[in-house]
Each structure stands twice: as structure tokens, then as C-alpha cells.
Amino acid sequence: MTDPLRDPLFFGDPYSTYDRLRSASPVQKIPTGSGGHYSYLVTGHAEARQAFTDPRLSKDTARFFAGQRSRRDLHPALSRNLLASDPPEHTRQRSVAGRLFTAGPVSKLRPYISEVVEGLLAGWESGTRVDLVQGLAGPLPVTVICELLGVPEADRQQVSQWSNDLFAAGEPERIDAASHAIGAYMGELVRKAYEEPTGGLLNTLAEHGEDGRLHEEEVVSLAALLLVAGHETTTNLIANSVLALIQHPSSLARLKQEPDLIAGSLDELLRFDSPVGIATFRFSTQELQLGGTLIPAGSPVLIAPGAANRDPAAFVEPQQLDLGRRASGHLAFGHGIHRCLGAPLARAEAEIALRAVLTRFPDIRLAVPSEDLEWRRTRLMRGLKSLPVLL
Length: 391
Description:
With 391 residues, this protein is α+β, with helices and mostly antiparallel strands. The chain has one domain (8-390): CATH 1.10.630.10. The chain is 50% helix and 8% strand. It contains 18 helices and 10 strands. The chain has helices at residues 8-12, 14-24, 45-53, 61-65, 76-79, 89-97, 103-121, 132-137, 139-149, 156-165, 172-195, 201-210, 216-229, 232-246, 249-257, 262-272, 305-308, 343-360, and strands at 27-31, 38-42, 57-58, 129-131, 282-284, 288-290, 293-295, 300-303, 365-366, 388-390. A 5-stranded mixed sheet has the order 1-2-8-5-3, with helices on both faces. Strands 4-10-9 form a 3-stranded antiparallel sheet. The chain has a two-stranded antiparallel ribbon with strand order 6-7. Helix 10 packs across helix 11, helix 14 packs across helix 16 and helix 14 (232-246) packs parallel to helix 18. It is globular and about 60 Å long.
């Protein structure tokens, strides 16, 4: 059996692969990569939810690879971060970073997010064709997180490209180079934050570094993580949501007529086409049973929110977009202690962007056949390279 997650057809339609695998078993051993490597893939909703909170599944990648020779050369800021740690280190860092994106701070950002959206849409005209990824879904979250981190406007396009390169599936050298570029860049920004306080988000992190709650390396690591995670998933959320609505005219019509329903529809849009297909790396620290499958100690485990959110055991007719569905149990943001801390910000950006687009351009439609859309070739993210639409 070849790696099902590297099949070219998988990137355009992962759900057929997920359904086939889940029908055989909600947890199963599959070949991953080359060289005889295997991982355990979790495609069932109940099993994924359990796996996200099982303390026997570690995210400490340094521990997993200790003593192994690796040809990879990731920058420490990207390889040893909040997503690659377990308690108590994770708890300490999360207690600091988690306060930055709660409902209160995010609500204060809404006017700025609206301002950015209005600026991006200012040049759009009815009757024209635009790329919604390049024109809105990409630059909106990049602009917001870069503004929060103090990334100069002149550097933002380059920073965004480095971030995209981190998800270049099958191109390890490109990924490693991007990690060093981002790590070095954020390291310099953090050092400036220590030397010249400006009151921004980096200074907030630096203050925790100065009082001993974070090491300087951890401040750099958190900054780099926020930069990457702060826009990649939101770009996919916005573009995937617009595409889903265009492909489901009744749902699109409902939100055009009642835009106040957009915020409450985000859970179903997240469930239907999750911006993260497969969650970041975990491994078993001891033997465990999951979904009727025995997972030996020391095994890589891949949890697939994209598959779990289409599990018919959890959602009736999961292949259908149903804005009336109670979809709050979706796993698009993960679950447990590693649940996406930027979820409130992602929701705010998506809600404001969707409302603006549907209000200004109620007749939006695809400019190309659906089968001609290009999806990014990465198993981690589920996102379009571009989304050509007619306004």
C-alpha cells in the first residue's frame, strides 16, 4: 500500500480518501512518506476527540527524535514551540499566549479588522474578476497578525511567502530554509522589542520574558508560531467558506438575506471544509488502544480533523452543508489543551470578511469550473492556491 495522503487526487478531494479509510477502521496504520515509515491515522470523530486529550499521545517532537539522525534542519523557533511541547512547559507558555486572543482583546480588534477589509475591497468593482485568495483571504489575516507583531508593511509580503513555504509538502529543503528565515526574522524583531518597547504584542511577550515566565528563545518561538498560525488557517477558512457558499446557492441566499446569521454559521462552515486537514505531529509514549486498534509505544499518530468532521457517526449527512446544523462539536480548531488559541481571532476575521463580501457583491460566483480550482499540495492544510470569482 502506498501513502494515501500523497496521492495527487487526495489534495483536490481528501474526503473520498478519508471516507474510504474510515469505513475500514476509524484508526489504522498507514504508510507515510518513503523509507518504510508508518503512522496511525485517526479518522473517526469520537476517536479523534479522545486522541486530542489522551496524555499518552505526546507532542514533544524533540523527545521523539532524540538520538535519531535526521536530515532535517528546522530552526529551533519552529521545531520547538508551543505546538511541540507537553505540560508543564506547554502549560506555562500557553498561560501567557492564551491571554492575547481571548474574546475581550479580539473584540477590541474588530474595528481594525473591518478597516483592513474595507481597504482590501475598495478596489473591487462589480462585473470584474478577482482572486479572492490573493485579494482578501490571504492579505487580511497576514495584515492583522503582522500589525499585532509589529512587522513593517514593507516586509509583510516576504514574511507571508516564507510562511507559505513552510507547508510545501514533499520539499523538505524549502521548508527548512523558510523556517530559518522566519526564525531569524522574528528573533531580530524580538530583540528590538526588548531594546525599544513600543507597547505592542511582542512587548507583552517580552515583558513575560523579563519577569522570568518565558525565556527569550520561547518568546521568539511564540512570536514565530503566532505569525504562521495567525494567518495560514484563517486564509483557508475564508476562502473555503466562500467556495462552499457559492457551491450551495440556498445557503448563500440565506446569508445574503440575513447577514446576522453569518457568525452562527461559522461552525458549520468550519466543519464542512476544515482549514486544517491533519493536525500537527503526535506520538504514543506507551502502548494504547484507540478505536479498536492497538498502537504500540513510540508510534507517530496523525489526527485528521478534516476526516472527523465528515464522520457520519457524529454528523447526519456530513457531505451536506447545512447552516441550520448544530455543528459546535466540530474539531476544526482541535480539542483539549492544544485547541487553537487564535480561534476567536479567526472567527472575527472570517465573519467580518464574509459579511463584507456578501453585502457588497451578492451575485458573486465562480469564474472557473470547480474542477479547475487548484488546491495546495499539503496534507496539513486544506486550502486553495487561488479562488477566481466574478463579482
